[in-house]
Inverse folding.
């Protein structure tokens, strides 16, 4: 407390962008209500740390007036930094996925079927936008006339290896048969 006073009060520890919500937190506590806040503070060593502060008012038993507060603070820095890193990695992956020059379809296995859950921009382009209509459908629904597609997706899933299929395929967008190589690659879920 003495150190805090020498610094100029708690507001000097709070990151400027979080000062308003920290002030609202204190005001709520002093008005007699429980409160919590997640904010950045400047630690003694100068590093910025994320904390979650949960507080309760402390009442005078005779007058019922708020005479102080008590609570706890939890350091969330590691969690928030990890979440930011995950977001950055997801953005990088999404960038790679969307700019991949090959049409890419992502399947999820559930209820013993493969459901189309994501497609990249090239998939939308080569299907003249029709691939978007297939999201959420199963491989069996999308390729009712080509059971080999579902079989190869399943084989890839079970073997966890790249499977290739060369096929004289009827391309719905241009209504022509053409030879295509389909490459199925297994990715661990939740990477």
């Amino acid at each position: 407390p003495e150190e805090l006073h020498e610094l100029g009060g708690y507001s000097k520890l709070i990151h400027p962008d979080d000062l308003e919500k920290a002030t609202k937190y204190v005001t709520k506590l002093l008005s007699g209500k429980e409160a919590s806040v997640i904010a950045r503070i400047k630690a003694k060593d100068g590093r910025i740390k994320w904390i979650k502060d949960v507080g309760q008012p402390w009442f005078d038993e005779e007058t019922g007036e708020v005479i102080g507060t008590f609570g706890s603070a939890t350091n969330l820095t590691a969690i928030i930094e990890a979440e930011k890193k995950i977001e950055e990695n997801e953005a990088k992956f999404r960038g790679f996925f969307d700019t991949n020059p090959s049409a890419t379809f992502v399947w999820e296995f559930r209820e013993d079927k493969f459901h189309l859950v994501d497609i990249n921009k090239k998939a939308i382009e080569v299907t003249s936008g029709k691939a978007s209509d297939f999201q959420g459908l199963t491989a069996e629904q999308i390729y009712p006339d080509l059971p080999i597609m579902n079989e190869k997706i399943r084989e890839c899933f079970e073997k966890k290896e790249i499977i290739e299929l060369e096929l004289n395929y009827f391309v719905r967008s241009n209504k022509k048969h053409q030879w295509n190589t389909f490459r199925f690659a297994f990715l661990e879920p939740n990477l």
About this structure: The longest strand covers residues 48-59. The CA atoms of residues 35 and 55 lie 6 Å apart. The chain has a mean pLDDT of 90.
